[in-house]
Design a protein that fits this description.
ATP-dependent Clp protease adapter protein ClpS; Ribosomal_bL12_C/ClpS-like; peptidase activity; ClpS_core; ClpS
């Protein structure tokens, strides 16, 4: 009984692969294209305060946001001089996770470092 079923399966595959007598040159082949929508991005903004050390801000920018030391220093100076800086552009879930990591790390060190998320 299994051989009989296998025979029909093999025959069906062979029929599908070979030019079919049921298909003509005018048959239309449709191709489905799937478009992946890119997630909306959000800006992570870090704010200056009078208590968080510059070294800690650089550390956070390197460890949490993976900036190199030069970029982290540049962003820290922008935060210090301008009061704030955009430190990352990320999908919402990732931006939220990074802000939470900054908050936890800052609280562990008793710093009031504020980081927020805004639509890009």
């Amino acid at each position: 009984m299994k051989q009989c079923g296998s025979y029909f399966l093999i025959k069906a595959v062979q029929d599908f692969k070979s030019p079919s007598k049921h298909r003509s040159d005018t048959d239309v082949i449709t191709e489905t294209k799937i478009q992946v929508k890119q997630p909306k991005l959000y800006t992570v903004i870090m704010y200056n305060d009078n208590y968080t050390t510059m070294d800690f801000v650089v550390y956070v920018l390197v460890e949490i946001f993976q900036h190199n030391i030069d970029k982290a220093y540049q962003l820290m100076m922008q935060i210090h001089e301008s009061g704030q800086a955009a430190v990352a552009l990320l999908p919402y879930d990732l931006a939220e996770m990074k802000v939470d990591e900054v908050t936890v790390l800052a609280e562990q060190e008793s710093y009031p470092l504020l980081t927020t998320i805004e639509p890009a």
